[in-house]
Amino acid sequence: MTYQDHSSHIRQLVASHNGTWDGIDPEAVVRMRLQNRFRTGLDIARYTAGIMRRDMAAYDADPANYTQSLGCWHGFIGQQKMISIKKHFGSTERRYLYLSGWMIAALRSDFGPLPDQSMHEKTSVPALIEELYTFLRQADARELGMMFRDLDKARDAGNEVEAQRLLHAVDTYETHVVPIIADIDAGFGNAEATYLLARKMIEAGACALQIENQVSDEKQCGHQDGKVTVPHEDFLAKVRACRYAFLELGVEDGIIVTRTDSLGAGLTKQIAVSKEPGDLGDQYNSYLDCEEVDAATARNGDVILNRGGRLLRPKRLPSNLFQFREGTGADRCVMDCIASLQHGADLLWIETEKPHIEQIASMVDRIREVVPNAKLVYNNSPSFNWTLNFRQQVFDAWGEAGEDVSAYDRARLMSVDYDGTALADEADERIRTFQQESAARAGIFHHLITLPTYHTAALSTDNLAKEYFGEAGMLGYVKGVQRKEIREGIACVKHQNMSGSDIGDDHKEYFAGEAALKAGGAHNTMNQFAA
Fold it and tell me: How do the residues of the chain divide into helix, strand and coil, expressed in percent and rounded to 5?
């Protein structure tokens, strides 16, 4: 309904109570309702799942329609990101939030900073989803509240044209609420544990769950060593658990992102169950590093595989883990991805060790031979040294093309000495266009940076501490922070407004009328920023 339709409905409702509700201002009710468009997390999950599905279809039609997100570890960070996007680009279209398990472990665990090994409280995952959406909904309420104040001013001034413009802006208002792709790690336990957590995450508002094929109790960050994968049937049981959670809660188009760590994972904890040659279990086992044995060479406690009449002993480590053959990672990634898509996954995530378009595309091409519309979510990871990687890629490409690279030391290309050189400039251009080019070539629907706001918080705090505690003193804050906030139109320069003070004043006036004691009067120091 439009603003006016809402108003008519509430007026009739108030009038139907025979005067007992006459203290209720129908227009105030309309404003409060519009400022609280999403009543529950499930409302958000259903709404944002629809957004993602439409975006996925748009990408299939044209890969220029790829989507992006930044990882956020606090509701305020996510809120400021979306406010900034609306300010600079006028729309939140194709821009999401990413919830990183790494950042929850490092920043939001009651245990204190932890490595990315699923040791943090799993309840902290849905808690952060709820927190992010609380802040995004508050951003809506704040912005709409300012529009309502402008509407009142236009009416008081008798400016009907401006009033109608503002009413139209309210009726067509674009929310700050966007999809969150939420990291459920390896499921935090068995399939039932995965289902229980998935349900909580969806109830908090998550429309997209990202789950990985590592062993839950051996889970490692995708960019660290020691990763251990599970057989497909174990992983697919968790994928189905996520789908059941979506369907139970009525989010019928919820998105499941299946991540394979096989490229960097050389170990497995289990031998897969195989019922017949060529099934998923047999394919998984075919990559194990084995040696042929017979009755004479078999040892006590050996695990023996029968493959085509040959008896094979998988190599078992002292840790009781089994290892895969070297160089099989890409093949296992392709197998993992095809199996996931054929068993209910919507999007793929291949964790790589470097940002190389052709490496990613070489796997996606093979996947698309079986599933033509396969699409990736890709981690533009801060664990990559982007500068060094791309300078080395340019160095190698130039060398293969027969160009003279004698002026460059490949091992030292990170050095500032090479800044501004032709090689560095070409590398920077490749970094700038990486998302666009890989969306077109390598099937990447969604580009995210997992930990960017972790690094920006550290960098900005370091800059402030260096200046404020040094010779600059207070000028370090004023020049480096506040002056920039004012001149660049950063919303939280009026931090009282951002925290909800003006929303509270509006409510006080609704509830108490002229008797309301409001905080936003002439003596509020935030008025210094009016200019």
Answer: 50, 10, 35
Strand partners for 497: none
Active site residues: 221
Q: Which residues contact 397 (CB under 8 A, 6 or more apart)?
A: none
Sign for the CA dihedral angle at 75, 77, 81, 87 comes to positive
Query: pTM value?
Result: 0.94
Cα(135)–Cα(303) distance, integer angstroms? 54
- CA dist 360 and 354 (Å) reads 10
**Other beta carbons less than 10 A from residue 226's beta carbon:** 16
10, 25 contact by CB (below 8 A): no
Q: Distance (Å, rounded) from C-alpha 332 to C-alpha 366?
A: 12
Task: Return d(Cα 397, Cα 294) in angstroms, integer.
Answer: 49
Residues in the chain: 531
SS3 (DSSP) at 98: strand
Angle at 339 between CA 338 and CA 343, to 5 degrees: 115
Question: What CA–CA distances, in Å, run from 282 to 104, 240, 265, 276, 527?
Answer: 37, 21, 18, 7, 70
pLDDT at 100: 95
What is residue 291's DSSP assignment?
Answer: E
358-405 residue pLDDT tens: 999 999 999 999 999 999 999 999 999 999 999 999 999 999 999 999
Return d(Cα 133, Cα 135) in angstroms, integer.
5
pLDDT tens digits for range 155-200: 999 999 999 999 999 999 999 999 999 999 999 999 999 999 999 9
Handedness of CA 313, 315, 321, 322 (dihedral sign): negative
Neighbours of 228 (CB within 10 A): 23
The tokens of 218 are what?
């051996």
The β-bridge partners of 98 are: 71, 181
| Distance between CA atoms of residues 71 and 89, nearest Å | 19
Biggest CA–CA distance in the chain, Å, is 100
> Rounded distance, CA 289 to CA 316, Å?
9
